[in-house]
């Protein structure tokens, strides 16, 4: 990837983040502390997509920085991918909340919020053009694959993702952290299997690379 291409992508993402920061299309656009657009390598081959920012992410304006974020970092490190080499974002850029007593609680984004915010996610995918998209949790997976998607049955399966990407879903790190005992071991084992498949997919030469190799070996025919 040339430096100018990297710089162009960085500028495009910065411009898009500025637009998202001013967006008030949903009610949660008024209750958020920060718009959590996304962060990471603009030329990442892996894009990780969660459902929406939680309390810590909302306060810091960064995706996956709470306890679940720490586990995500460990998951990525397990397949030799430092967080800085990946692009991380969510299906919605503002924290979905509900009021319980005198407290604001996290909640899953509702369908209208996901629809409203989808152009920002599509734009990120178009700019970054990741080879692989890893959706974390059922809501993120359903935003790509439709409401019939079942995380317990279909996680770890490859699907055709947007913009020519390969798409897989696995359990959300927050879900992993909610498990205990044997249940946690079982869920972690499933996630590890999925991560190994992601690592393998990233290792496979892209079609472009395969084409370049063909041209290098045999010339233009
Ligand atoms: S969630 Fe997305 S569409 Fe809704 S207000 Fe926030 S940035 Fe705008």
What's the total number of strands? 8
The rough form would be described as globular
CATH architecture: 3-Layer(aba) Sandwich
Mean pLDDT: 93
Query: What structural class should be given to the helix and strand makeup?
Result: alpha/beta
Low-confidence stretches: none
Instruction: State the CATH superfamily name.
Output: Uracil-DNA glycosylase-like domain
Strand order of the largest sheet: 1-3-2-6-8-7
- What ligand molecules are bound, each kind once? iron/sulfur cluster
Q: What is the CATH level 1 assignment?
A: Alpha Beta
Overall number of domains: 1
- Helix % is 40-55%
* Proportion of residues in β-strands: 5-15%
Q: Give the N-to-C terminal Cα separation.
A: 26 Å
Short description:
The chain is an alpha/beta fold and 221 residues long. It is 51% helix and 14% strand. The chain is globular and about 70 Å long.
């Amino acid at each position: 990837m040339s430096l100018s291409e990297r710089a162009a992508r960085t500028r495009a993402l910065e411009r898009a983040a500025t637009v998202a920061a001013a967006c008030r299309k949903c009610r949660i656009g008024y209750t958020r502390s920060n718009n959590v657009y996304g962060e990471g390598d603009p030329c990442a081959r892996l894009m990780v997509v969660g459902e929406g920012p939680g309390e810590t992410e909302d306060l810091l304006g960064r995706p996956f920085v709470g306890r679940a974020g720490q586990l995500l970092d460990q998951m990525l490190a397990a397949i030799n991918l430092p967080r800085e080499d990946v692009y991380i974002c969510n299906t919605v850029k503002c924290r979905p909340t509900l009021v319980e007593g005198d407290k604001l609680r996290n909640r899953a984004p509702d369908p209208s919020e996901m629809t409203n915010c989808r152009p920002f996610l599509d734009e990120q995918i178009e700019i970054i053009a990741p080879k692989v998209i890893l959706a974390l949790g059922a809501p993120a997976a359903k935003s790509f694959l439709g409401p019939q998607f079942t995380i317990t049955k279909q996680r770890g399966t490859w699907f055709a993702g947007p913009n020519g990407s390969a798409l897989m879903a696995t359990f959300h790190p927050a879900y992993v952290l909610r498990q205990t005992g044997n249940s946690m071991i079982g869920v972690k084992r499933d996630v590890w299997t999925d991560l190994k498949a992601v690592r393998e997919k990233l290792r496979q030469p892209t079609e472009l690379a395969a084409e370049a190799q063909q041209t290098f070996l045999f010339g233009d025919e």
